[in-house]
Amino acid sequence: MKLRRREFLKLSAASVGALALGEQVGASSLPNPLARVPAPWYATGVTQSYSICENCFWKCGITAHVAGGKVFKVEGYQGNPKSRGRLCPRGQGAVAQVYDPDRLKHPLIRVEGTARGEGKYRTASWDEALDYIADHMLDIKDRYGSESMAFFGHCSGDSWFVEYLPGAWGSPNAAKPSVSLCTTPRETASQWTFGRPVGGHEPVDWENTRYIVLIGHHIGEDTHNTQLQDFSLALASGAKLVVVDPRFSTAASKADRWLPIRPGTDTALLLAWLNVLVDEELYDRDYLDRYAVGFDELALHVKKFTPEWAAPITDLPAEAIRIVARELAAHAPEAVIPPGRHTVWYGDDTQRMRAQYLVNALLGNVGRPGGFYIAQPPYLEPYPHPPFVLEPAAGGCGGAEVTTEESNSDFRPAADRGKFFARTTAIQELIPPMITGEPYPIKGLIAYGVNLFHSIPNVPRTKEALRELDLYVAIDVMPMEHVMWADVILPEASYLERHDDLVAIAHKTPFIELRTPAIEPLWDSKPGWWIARELGIRLGLEAYFAWQDIEEYLDRRLTAIGSSLEQAKQVGTLIQKGRPYLEDWEARNRSPFGTPSGKIELYSETFAQNGLDPLPVYTPPEEVPQGYYRLLYGRSPVHTFARTQNNWILMEMHGENAVWVSVAEAERQGLSNGDYVWLENQDGVREGPVQVYATERIRRDCLYLVHGFGHKSSSLAIADGRGASDNALQTRYTLDPISGGAGLRNNFVKLIPGAPRPRHPNLARLARERRI
Amino acid sequence: MARYAMAIDLAACVGCAACAVACKLENEVPSGEHQLWIRMREEGIFPDLAVLYRPEQCMHCDRPPCVPVCPTGASYRSEDGLVLVDPEKCIACGACVAACPYDARFFHPDGYVGKCTFCRHRIQGGRLPACVETCPTLCRTFGDLDDPDSDVSIALREAERIDILRADRGTKPKLYYLNTPPAFGPHLEEVAS
Amino acid sequence: MTTFYGLPNSGAFWHWPTLIHFLVVALAGGTALLVAVLAFRRDLAARRYALVALILVVLDLLLLWAESSARFRLTHIWLFLGFHPGSAMWWGAWGLTGSAAASALIALGWGPRRFWATLLLMTATITLLYPGLLLAANNARPLWTPLLLAFVPVTSLVIVLGGVLLLRWAWVKPWFLAASLSSVFLGGLYLVGLAVGGFEARQALVHFWEHAGWLFLVGLGLMLSAVALLRRFPALAGLAAFAGAALARTLIVEVGQFQPFGL
Ligand SMILES: Nc1nc2c(c(=O)[nH]1)N[C@H]1C(S)=C(S)[C@@H](COP(=O)(O)OP(=O)(O)OC[C@H]3O[C@@H](n4cnc5c(=O)[nH]c(N)nc54)[C@H](O)[C@@H]3O)O[C@H]1N2
Ligand SMILES: Nc1nc2c(c(=O)[nH]1)N[C@H]1C(S)=C(S)[C@@H](COP(=O)(O)OP(=O)(O)OC[C@H]3O[C@@H](n4cnc5c(=O)[nH]c(N)nc54)[C@H](O)[C@@H]3O)O[C@H]1N2
Ligand code: SF4
Ligand code: SF4
Ligand code: SF4
Ligand code: SF4
Ligand code: SF4
Ligand SMILES: [Mo]
Fold this sequence. Notes:
The structure holds 3 protein chains of 3 kinds. Chain A is α/β, with parallel strands linked by helices. In chain A, β16 and β17 form a beta hairpin. Chain A is globular. The model of chain A is unreliable at about 1-30 and about 395-405 (pLDDT under 50). Chain C has helices at about 15-40, 45-65, 75-80, 90-110, 115-135, 150-165, 175-195, 200-230, 235-255; one strand at about 1-5. Chain C starts with a strand and ends in an 8-residue tail after the last helix. The mean pLDDT of chain C is about 90. The interface between A and B is large, with 68 and 49 residues. One iron/sulfur cluster binds next to α2 of chain B.
């Protein structure tokens, strides 16, 4: 009875919301007595073309539907193994970005005499803007060496800017946020356990699995399209699900068991599972004999990590820990603990990921149906260009180029080298050299589709670094805050207005995807390939850009593998055959495990030689200081990072984030749902105001924020000031000494009540200005 | 002639709103209005919790209270059992908005009442409604109730539990909710397929 | 707790223009009824007041047209081309149009006056009844109970007779008294009916009480005070009843739009 009443009030509140949004009833344009109801877009001739979604980095194949010169809708298509005819909410809504009037429209040059961050710009021609950049880059090269130019990039077009250009130009300081702020722990652990990358498309054999354990990994809120489809299909066909998460995530709401673990203690849980598997002899002995080394060392190592040991650490009952281990074993090898993707948590992340992989290995599920299939990249040759002066090493979520060797001794190693074992280039470690000049100065930066102020921790430091630079160029589609700090801003054509390089996906059935423009670039925007080429020519790198336009380039690459651009345009996706299981490899007498031993390394000799723990150990996370909560964060199903908060359609679905607080703590602090608070972190940084979401769905010791909100830029009419930024509160990170990953979950926040309810311009009005 | 219906498996729905976004674009639903929305509700005390994600839209009732109240005949039920509005006939009087027990209708700024059409233009071309086509969890099914082999008929047969909303209203909705989580039981009436 | 991606269309759908229409239609229908009665009584004033009724009806029709966001598509024509007896709105359209025609003819003094009077009696009655029907037909909205079938026309009469009192027509006093008293009675019954109704009705009552409770009582109170004032201050009584009835009805229309339940 009580609850019904509360709900009923909630609904009245929602009605008020609906009223506020729905005021516009009444004709919006001048009335015409003869006007009939306008014909829907699909009633006028619609044409379709193939492309790739760009609202996140999953790269689903899409068709763009154009009527009267405008794209009205994008859809997935059956022939594409990423979309399989379906799209996630973000992919569906991405079209709105193309017609956002806030988009960057012309090249801009910062007004002489103004400081970075003041946001004063004048329109420039492309020639002027590109000449400006080239002059400054060549100047930096003369004065400090080519390594002093850094290249940051993310997005489908990033290969031009973090691989092609830096490779040709000669800078090892090229990096992506999707490495050291995302996947590097899992990739590093995978390299030194299985000798293979996980890869951008996690090779979980969903269709055959019967038992799934998700550690964090909030599928459902993390809406990577195919993964969500596969996850759902697996559950529909009866797979059991266990979710380990301090928060009752969407995935937890679908789970058979939810383990509300104390944050940061997952390694202890995994060690306990290893203990049970070994102790009760539940591992796959034959599999390990054939494919693994180091079992004895592991067995000895995990002896003391009993569930009883782990129980007080993890705040989980020993019995529950034991049961899950047994159930995992009972379903093996069709049982799997998927790697998750965002794995930079507490700074000991490579070891946690190693532990996670070892559980999988003991279940004998790698290369077996129901566990992990073995993903391979499609066959595709690079465009025949002169050799790069420096091999690109930015890596990506598709598996970091993990290397311990320098590729060219004529150049200084990347400015972050030496800090950690896996020499992936860590984007956040390239910031300090901009300030300190150590080990050598970084004086210039090209940021292509990277959200410097929302993706990289310690924003004050980033701002300080940007102030120190001689040249800062931003290539983007939106006037994000960090973009409005650049010396030169180059407006890229949006994903539906351009070609990009081919996208090659390592998969069960490896495939190549094509992006073709559905419409001409709006305003004065240009595609990334064009920008890279024009800049390259101005930098004296014309030999690398011997092709005249992208179609020539694409056709050459496709012809080299027996296809053609024409053919690719007809089908959108070119699918090849893979070798997903161990038997496929054994039939050819090959091993998929590229470790030094050629086997799964339960015990890592290489780690031991480098003074690292060769077997996973549990490091307790930093304690939560009195009066603070640990700040956790994750995804909204309808948003991608900090890039979609100016998209009216997605904002109508989820218009601001709220800070999740346990009901008990909210009551203790006298807060109720819908109150606004400030968040203040351990370093005194304040963020907000943000709404309180008091819920039973989270442990008492932590708070939770959806990442990506809290933009502070008047150029983003919708995004500005809505919600709070987790990144602003992450002024610290714990560097994982093995992978270079920046552990973001050692930031602590307190709630400060009494913040004013922020006033925002009416979303419906802003949305109306943005209709296609 | 068909009897179109839709079913949503709530055991699978993750409330991602891909359906709602797809509907907005497919049907050019104006800002501030929704033909489809997701209701999310939580129950229980830590750690015994349940969350319900329930997409809602026009139920294409077999006995639609919104149709007889329409003074112009703009609201009508098609031969296929779709409940539709002819925008050219609609005078935006709101009688049908008042009559709908599911809050499914809204005033379109172009001067008529809008609502989910089961994407009639798509199903006429043999395609699925936009929301069904895109749903990443595959929890939506659509089809002809009179055809035992249609997706929706199969889904209804295989469901462990079927609910309709506000069964007491006698509207006979043709949007079925399958496998509602047990924690959200009592206020929904179970019906036999 | 319940949250949404997107929102159900649960907000108010009728805004102030519709609320005004509900008042004007009461005036129009009531006046038309009065004119019909006058015409039957062969009152010479009938012609004059038929003009007033005509103006009110036309005003209401114009209002209806103007408040519709479809006004420039001229789709109102469909109202008269179809046969939709299940729709209160359709009856209303014919009621108003018929009243306009009949009162125009009476005002002009052409043709068979008794016949026009009979016609006007019928169309005016429809005009008076249909708003109640329009509300009561919605079994989706628990605040719009079948009782409104009576409450709405009776309060319409209060509104009109309240106005007429200002003209010092003594003969309407008993009618006014009866209408006011039954309005107050029905208003009370409305609340009681909700209170003893089912679970949903009680929830609706809570909602009504939170959003309109005191004002509704004030409305009923004003009508009651009119009864007391009638003897000595008839004009004041008329005003009070007019205000009270208008207030009480408007609140029911306004607040009753909500479906105050989470589905
Ligand atoms: N809609 C949407 N989907 C996305 C993205 C997006 O922007 N939007 N981004 C994509 C990208 S690039 C990535 S990397 C992924 C990220 O998505 P995931 O790989 O799923 O990220 P995680 O950090 O594992 O998941 C966050 C969850 O971890 C829980 N958590 C927090 N601390 C702990 C802890 O100490 N232990 C455990 N066990 N759980 C904890 C949080 O409560 C939250 O539920 O999402 C991808 N999918
Ligand atoms: N605090 C915090 N930090 C995080 C995370 C977190 O959860 N919390 N998540 C981490 C993870 S997992 C990842 S993968 C990274 C993601 O980090 P980013 O990729 O930096 O994240 P986005 O916010 O999507 O920023 C993308 C930028 O690209 C621009 N853009 C969009 N489309 C285009 C285009 O077509 N062309 C060009 N040139 N630009 C475009 C956008 O406007 C935006 O400026 O962030 C990491 N950092
Ligand atoms: S997962 Fe969604 S946003 Fe990402 S590429 Fe696919 S459809 Fe686009
Ligand atoms: S798209 Fe599917 S899973 Fe997502 S909210 Fe809609 S019905 Fe649920
Ligand atoms: S859900 Fe509402 S609008 Fe749809 S048919 Fe039923 S009553 Fe009519
Ligand atoms: S608003 Fe349109 S569809 Fe609804 S009842 Fe009125 S005329 Fe009919
Ligand atoms: S069937 Fe079509 S109109 Fe109806 S909710 Fe789905 S997408 Fe929208
Ligand atoms: Mo990521």
